[in-house]
Write a structure and sequence with these properties.
The chain has 101 residues and is α+β, with helices and mostly antiparallel strands. It has one domain. The protein is 25% helix and 33% strand. The longest helix has 18 residues. The protein is globular and about 45 Å long.
Length: 101
């Protein structure tokens, strides 16, 4: 019994998903990106230097931060949509005034 779709059945989604990171990495500079993770509907970019994550995200038009404080070390994912893909860029944990540490 097959529970996952075959590649040929959803090939267009996967090919579109592959092009999204290619364009994004070209825009910000391949030297600034260490890892790219993709699925059919999402891409996540991991900068070579996490402190650059917010600047990279903003240059790609991503401006919704999701802070993950329970991880050690904590980090922020900057999120948005690009080329029909949910897009995330990982960054160091942003410092927000008034938030208890």
């Amino acid at each position: 019994m097959r529970t996952t779709p075959r590649l040929v059945e959803n090939g267009d989604d996967l090919l579109r998903a592959i092009e999204g990171p290619r364009t994004a990495v070209s825009e910000v500079g391949a030297h600034r990106i260490e890892v790219v993770t993709i699925t059919r509907n999402r891409m996540c970019l991991h900068p070579s230097h996490l402190p650059d994550g917010e600047a990279i995200a903003r240059s790609l038009g991503l401006d919704l931060p999701m802070d993950h404080r329970m991880f050690v070390p904590g980090h922020t994912l900057w999120c948005g949509e690009r080329e029909g893909l949910e897009t995330q860029v990982r960054s160091i944990l942003r410092q927000v005034e008034g938030v208890a540490r």
